[in-house]
Every structure is written in C-alpha cells, then in structure tokens.
Amino acid sequence: MTTLPPRAARRCAHPVNLLHATLFFSPDLDVVFKELGFEDGSAIRLAARSAPLGAVGAGTVAATFYNYNHGFLARHLPAVWETASPAEVLDARLRAMDTTLRRLLGEDAVASPEMAEAADLAMRAAEACTRHARPLYSGNADLPVPDAAHLRLWHATTLLREHRGDGHVVALLSAGLDPVEALASHTATGKGMSPRWVLGTRGWGRADWEGAVERLRGRGLLDAEGELTEAGAALRESLEEATDRLDAAPYEHLGAEGTARLTELTKGFLVAAVGAGAFPADLTGKV
Q1: pTM exceeding the 0.85 threshold for the entire prediction
Q2: What is the C-alpha separation between 194 and 176, in angstroms, rounded?
Q3: Tens-digit pLDDT profile for residues 226-278
Q4: What are the CA-CA distances from residue 90 to residues 32, 86, 235 (Å)?
Q5: Are 253 and 129 a contacting pair, CB within 8 Å?
C-alpha cells in the first residue's frame, strides 16, 4: 500500500528527470568534452551517460540504454575510451553540469537555501533506491556525492532518473515492446521526442521507424493515422503504472510532504531552466 497521493511519485519524477536531462542538451557539455579531444556530439553524450559503468562497449550500452541501435553504438563504443578514461569523463560531465546550472538558473538560485533543501530531499529519496537489476542506477550510486548543493542535487536527480529508467526497461520488456516500438508508441502520446530527434540521436533509420509503426498497427496499438488506439493508450498508461510501482520506494521513503516539496522545488528550477533555453523547441511532438 502507498502512503502517497495518487501519481505523486510520477509528478515528482517528471521534473527530476528533466532537470537531470538538461546536461545532454547543454552546449557546455560539448565545450568541456572537446577540451578532452572529443569531436562527435553522439560520442560525447554516450560517454557522458555510460561512464559510471566503466570502459564498456556497445553491447553493455545497448542492453542498459534499451532504445539505441547497436550498430550506431558500435561506431562510438568502446572507441570513446581511447579519447578519455571513464574517470576523466565523469570529471568533465560534472564540470559541464556546474557551468550549465549556473548559466540556466543563475548564481542566486545556485547558492539559494532552496537549492540546498532540494538537494537534501532528493538525496534522502535516493537512500531508498535499490541496486538489484538496476545497472545504470547502481553505477552512478558508486560515485562520490558532490559537496556543492547544485551538483549534489544533479547527482541525486541522476540517481533517481536512472533508478526509474532501469525499472521502465523491465516494464517495456514485460509489455513486449522492442526498442523502436517503445520509442514510436511514446512519441504517439505527444509527450515523447519527435521522430526527427529519435532518429538523429538513437541511430535508427526511417525504415526502422516505419517498421515499428506497422508492427504497432498490427497489434492494434496505433490506428491508420499513427495515433494511439484505445488499446495503445491503455498500454502506455499501464507502462507508466508499472514503472511507478517499481519506482515507488524512493518517494515512499521521502513521504508525502517531502515528495510534494521536492516536486515544488524541482519544478521551479525546471521552469527557470526551460525559460533559459535548456531544451530545443522542437524536441517533442508527433512529427
């Protein structure tokens, strides 16, 4: 039984996840990584997210990231580790995040009591995350916690985001959605990345996308126009409910009041970040 209001954990996870994700759309990430010798944007982002796992190859990343094309990954991994070690990459991503949060939120917000409060709440929630069957969470949980409040908050959002994401992979497998089907059905909700962004960042081709759409139609999940059917919408909601169940522990640990306060604080920081241009305007959408 939950002690939280309905969907409280999901409402909190949304701004937590997006605040974490500002790193991967940040020009500061490119600047810092190019100082290490990186040139390709995809290689930068793959290295930044996978570094907590060590000097891994394409197979490990395909398994843990779930929705990336293995051939695309193999063009960058494990070659990225010849440019910089995982330890150097981890240091670089934290420096990039420091610059990014200061740029998006401003120095006053970074140094504010609210930032310290959000960091403490998020770290307290992360105390209840579990390691088993959660490779991306567990790899990040082995990293030292930064001292500065804004970086401690980002570290905590990383833990919470990867914990939820690891659970979401379980839900996708249980629902029988392959990587491209998962992406296409999410895009059909209107809340996922647009096909252009998916194909540009995940390494799939247009034929892969169209094949997934046809398979979803064959299962009665998409209609002839590519919109979710009633069954498709129900499946997507069941995926979120399963993910909520698998991700309940951190927010139950934090409690209703703490979860509501963390939601309020992270949403405020996220609104400021979005207003400062944290994400591309065409990132989400059905076309």
Answers
A1: yes
A2: 22
A3: 999 999 999 999 999 999 999 999 999 999 999 999 999 999 999 999 999 99
A4: 11, 6, 37
A5: no
